[in-house]
Design goal:
The chain is an all-beta fold. It is built from no helices and 6 strands. The structure holds calcium ion (2 copies). The site of one calcium ion has 5 residues, from loops.
Length: about 70
């Protein structure tokens, strides 16, 4: 797992989860409220296979795309 402060505000807002050296999942806090609101899932080739969004800000995925 690695954490990135993508907008340099001192709070980690991008979390990458690895499996056998490859990024399998990225989680983002796009509105800096400390809760994840955007998820991306990757296959072995690094292609996005699935995304999810939290639209009401409770940190729980509301919309899934695949
Ligand atoms: Ca958020
Ligand atoms: Ca939600």
């Amino acid at each position: 797992m690695s954490e990135v402060d993508a907008d340099y505000n001192g709070v980690f807002d991008l979390f990458k989860y690895y499996e056998s050296g490859k990024v399998r999942r990225k989680e983002r806090d796009t509105n800096a409220d400390g809760k994840i609101d955007f998820w991306e899932y990757f296959d072995d080739q690094g292609n996005v296979v699935k995304t999810g969004k939290d639209i009401d800000g409770d940190g729980v995925m509301d919309i899934r795309d695949q």
